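User: What would this chain look like folded?
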Amino acid sequence: MPDKKCTENEQNDCVMPVRSANPIRARSLIRDNLEKQAGCLNLIHSRMPNIKVFSGTSHPDLAQRIVDRLGIDLGKVVTKKFSNLETCVEIGESVRGEDVYIVQSGSGEINDNLMELLIMINACKIASASRVTAVIPCFPYARQDKKDKLAGSEENAESKKLAKKNYDWKFRANAQSRAPISAKLVANMLSVAGADHIITMDLHASQIQGFFDIPVDNLYAEPAVLKWIKENIPEWKNSIIVSPDAGGAKRVTSIADRLNVEFALIHKERKKANEVASMVLVGDVKDKIAILVDDMADTCGTIVHAADRLVEAGATKVYAILTHGIFSGPAISRINNACFEAVVVTNTIPQDGHMRDCPKIQCIDVSMMFAEAVRRTHNGESVSYLFSNVPY
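Assistant: Here's the prediction, encoded as structure tokens.
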């Protein structure tokens, strides 16, 4: 097959139909055209852009694990702040025509890290990168995905109390909300910055994918969670999977079905953000190992109250498995004082400090899932295998 560059006439031959009165001559022309087409395809594949992976400052350890898995080096980038705290990013190597992946999680100083990600995307895009993919293990502002709050004025606060007292749900539903849909705003910012593709994990609400006009691959921690349960809980066949709120029912039923065990859920009602008022358990956990599963834990008020409720209902042991362990405010002290056997999180957010402060916290490494997603995306392969399997 020819290695040389196709001339204009040869490129035309690749697509022109074969016409000849002589059948033998026609077959010969078809064979020649097929060989020329293969040469053109080889030329296209040889031009396929190389891969470059850059890391933001939010989670360099995860980015390093990803590139180690891919067998490449981390791209050179310099991030600094001016005296007025403006973020400055300089890409330290050429990205012209390259397939660029930027790893930045929504953790730590979220607003600074988000701005840094946007600047890095734009810097690569205007430096003529072929494609820029944002790898965002924990998507920022994912909890602000709908307008479901009443406005914060005194009038509406009184209306909310009155509605709750009189159970006038229709009145509450009609009350005007002025809450933002910040997840949509973040989606718009990423698109405008120049992102061509998003890779993330366990979005708080799957409909966030619809906020984007670009492809979004929402990976699941479920395969890694199933693997951890089978390897670290000897009596897992006598377990029950519990969702700490109604919104996670679909998540726990999927895990319970794959483990062939029962599930339960807890209905919670909040007085205000980060503060739970009451909990009602739906399901029988007596004499079983309860495994609480949720997508994230922030101040850990919900899962601690849920664990106490499960123990009251007769659960022998309680585990908590969370995809994103934010652990802000009093979270660590609450976990230390709670009745958990273990609180298991993934490393979508850095956990080294949390694990030092709390011996109950254990970490599942999901870098291989992101590395495989990057490899498959770069090679134009399907990533649906990762929805139900852990790559080795």
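The first strand starts at residue 51 and ends at 55. If you want, I can go into more detail on any region.
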